[in-house]
């Protein structure tokens, strides 16, 4: 009997370690294969292909056992059969009563669900309905415009157990519901975390530990610094849109040079975001001619009011010439939360993708602000961002909304509310008036560049950051004061900001003299990047000066925020400044009585409202005219050449008292 000899093959240890390293890099990708179900073409008896996905018609025989339809529904088809409309959106299924698609789930995990809506006829645009899944309402009071250029896609991420998973379509009243296509497929493992830091407008709020049990509805998916990405360009068929329209000030940011090679994933799943997200970025637009390069880049997003949102921020350092630059910077959410971002905290290589997750409460402004800014201890004083995703956590209300939500106690509460409504309104009016008189203004924050605290206060470092307690959005919809002036009108008034019309320059920006088309003489105050004042001051002046009139207050004629501008338009005081009348012998001098009146008026404005208030607080961030308490971030002159808002009692000359030095 012949014996078979065994041969031992020896492999060098370095080779084995290298192979193990290669395997570790690809394990996340190898562990997940993009599923081929479920992709349903609703109301169709044929299959169609879209972006590499094969959508199966729900009328075909191949769907036996994979899903079922409940309730009454009918399939409809676009009679025009326009060649411009993709086949997937030429059919739909209509529901006249509460109905559902019920899917069989064989693997538990996190799933991506997409509902496609395209109104190819006027009849479909009349639909009004709700959609729910896993007992969570994901679409409310929904309708689809007729013949929109592209379909509306509602995407949500949800954890599903093994068994049956229904998606309900519920018409409102006598209306109906419809859907063109449905995607339901398993996401990669650990696609969403179980917990994340909880952040609100007031700052850090601890941790949110229940993410996996919630449905996440995608609100924004942004490819920062890059182009629109269609499903063909994404590993999970997602849409990404450019960030430019969300920038508060486009002059603060520039697109980084694109990365020509693939990112260095190093064990990071390529399904978190596609290559093209990490190959592009926005970075600070550093300008040596600018007075200050100490500013933030801010993006502004509309979100649901008083809701809870899951936020994922994507980074990949493609801006540094080498890892030795020791780049680090700050990420800001609202005004009172910051986190240091260090691209080399866990990896020393360039172009390594990573992301940071948060759960963020919104307030009743419906605005979320995300910013990045430089750190003083960074070797390269810049900041960058590659991508951003914002998803609403369905069925959750923000902590502030939950705390203030009254509990209903039945019909007696309703009857009592109706009977006592007028009395309650009167009481609230009195309380509000008393509260405004007793409210203590906050001291102005330092303008110093600190590497740890959030850039805030009057600094352009936080142009989008409102003072604590104030509710501000990024643009005019929340102002709605009827004072908006078009940018073209202001260009006309100032001869396109002719420097010969310049009459001053200060903390906010440059002041120009101008004439509107109706002949009104105006002073135009235009903000500029690097200025020391920003959005809080801009909005406060609009809100306050548009609602009050005072003999010492220069009238606000209008404002402009087009093209990310911050421009305030005041009445023009042609008789000069108080300083000129005090020190310029060529101008008429003020009587001692008039000077005393001015001093008394300014003193009353600076007088603390309560004996216990800190009389040493910096008063440059507030103006309290007699009997009128203004918001704490009202912009005041910080330089003698800036635009003042006080004027001499009864006259048309400016008062430029240096009130920030009055103690």
UniProtKB/TrEMBL annotation:
Transmembrane region(s): 411-434
Cellular compartments annotated: Membrane
Signal peptide span: 1-31
Start and end residues of each Protein kinase domain: 497-663
InterPro entries, alphabetized: ANXUR1/2-like (IPR045272), Kinase-like_dom_sf (IPR011009), Malectin-like_Carb-bd_dom (IPR024788), Prot_kinase_dom (IPR000719), Protein_kinase_ATP_BS (IPR017441), Ser-Thr/Tyr_kinase_cat_dom (IPR001245)
UniProt GO cellular component terms: membrane
Residues reported in the UniProt entry to bind ATP: 525
Pfam family, one: Malectin_like
Membrane association type: Single-pass type I membrane protein
Keyword check for Cytoplasm: no
Coiled-coil blocks: none
Assigned keywords, A-Z: ATP-binding, Glycoprotein, Kinase, Membrane, Nucleotide-binding, Serine/threonine-protein kinase, Signal, Transferase, Transmembrane, Transmembrane helix
PANTHER family per record: CARBOHYDRATE-BINDING PROTEIN OF THE ER PROTEIN, OS03G0124300 PROTEIN-RELATED
Record protein name field: Protein kinase domain-containing protein
Species this protein is from: Salix brachista
């Amino acid at each position: 009997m012949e014996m078979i000899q065994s041969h031992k093959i020896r492999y060098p240890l370095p080779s084995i370690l290298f192979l193990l390293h290669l395997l570790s890099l690809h394990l996340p990708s190898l562990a997940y294969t993009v599923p081929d179900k479920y992709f349903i073409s609703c109301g169709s008896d044929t299959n169609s292909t879209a972006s590499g996905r094969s959508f199966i018609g729900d009328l075909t025989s191949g769907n036996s056992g994979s899903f079922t339809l409940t309730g009454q529904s009918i399939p409809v088809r676009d009679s025009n059969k326009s060649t411009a409309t993709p086949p997937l959106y030429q059919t739909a299924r209509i529901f006249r009563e509460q109905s559902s698609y019920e899917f069989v789930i064989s693997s538990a995990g996190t799933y991506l669900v997409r509902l496609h809506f395209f109104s190819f006829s006027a009849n479909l645009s009349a639909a009004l309905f709700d959609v729910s899944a896993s007992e969570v309402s994901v679409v409310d009071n929904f309708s689809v415009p007729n013949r929109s250029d592209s379909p509306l896609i509602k995407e949500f991420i949800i954890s599903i157990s093994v068994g049956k998973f229904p998606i309900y379509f519920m018409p409102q009243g006598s209306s109906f519901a419809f859907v063109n296509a449905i995607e339901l497929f398993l996401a990669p493992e650990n696609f969403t975390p179980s917990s994340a830091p909880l952040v609100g407008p007031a700052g850090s709020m601890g941790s949110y530990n229940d993410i996996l049990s919630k449905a996440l509805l995608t609100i924004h998916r942004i490819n920062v610094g890059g182009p629109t990405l269609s499903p063909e360009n994404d590993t999970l068929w997602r849409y990404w849109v450019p960030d430019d329209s969300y920038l508060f000030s486009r002059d603060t940011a520039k697109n980084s040079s694109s990365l020509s090679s693939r990112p260095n994933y190093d064990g990071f799943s390529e399904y978190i975001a596609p290559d093209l997200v990490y190959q592009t970025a926005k970075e600070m637009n550093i300008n040596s001619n600018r007075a200050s390069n100490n500013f933030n880049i801010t993006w502004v997003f509309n979100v649901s009011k008083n809701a809870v949102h899951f936020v994922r921020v994507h980074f990949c350092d493609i801006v540094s010439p080498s890892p030795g630059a020791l780049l680090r910077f700050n990420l800001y959410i609202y005004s009172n939360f910051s986190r240091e971002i260090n691209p080399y905290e866990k990896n020393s290589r360039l172009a390594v993708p990573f992301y940071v997750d948060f759960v963020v409460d919104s307030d009743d402004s419906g605005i979320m602000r995300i910013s990045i800014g430089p750190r003083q201890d960074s070797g390269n004083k810049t900041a960058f961002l590659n991508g951003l995703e914002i998803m609403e956590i369905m069925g959750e209300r923000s902590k502030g909304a939950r705390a203030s939500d009254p509990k209903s106690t039945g019909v007696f509460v309703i009857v009592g509310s109706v009977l006592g409504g007028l009395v309650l309104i009167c009481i609230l009016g009195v309380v509000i008036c008393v509260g405004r008189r007793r409210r203590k203004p906050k001291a102005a924050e330092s303008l110093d560049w600190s590497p740890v605290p959030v850039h805030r206060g009057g600094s352009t470092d936080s142009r989008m950051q409102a003072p604590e307690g104030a509710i501000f959005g990024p643009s005019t919809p929340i102002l709605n004061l009827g004072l908006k002036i078009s940018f073209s009108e202001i260009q006309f008034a100032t001869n396109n900001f002719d420097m010969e019309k310049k009459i001053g320059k200060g903390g906010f920006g440059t002041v120009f003299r101008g004439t509107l088309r109706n002949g009104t003489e105006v002073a135009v105050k235009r903000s500029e990047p690097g200025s020391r004042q920003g959005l809080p001051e801009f909005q406060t002046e609009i809100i306050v000066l548009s609602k009050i009139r005072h003999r010492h207050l220069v009238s606000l004629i209008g404002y402009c925020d087009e093209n990310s501008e911050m421009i305030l338009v005041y009445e023009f005081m042609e008789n000069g400044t108080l300083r000129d009348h005090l020190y310029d012998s060529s101008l008429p001098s003020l009587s001692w009585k008039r000077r005393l009146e001015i001093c008394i008026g300014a003193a009353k404005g600076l007088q603390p409202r309560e004996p216990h208030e800190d009389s040493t607080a910096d008063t440059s961030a507030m103006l309290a005219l007699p009997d009128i308490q203004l918001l704490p971030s009202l912009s005041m002159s910080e330089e003698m050449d800036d635009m003042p808002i006080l004027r001499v009692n009864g006259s048309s000359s400016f008062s430029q008292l240096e009130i920030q030095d009055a103690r």
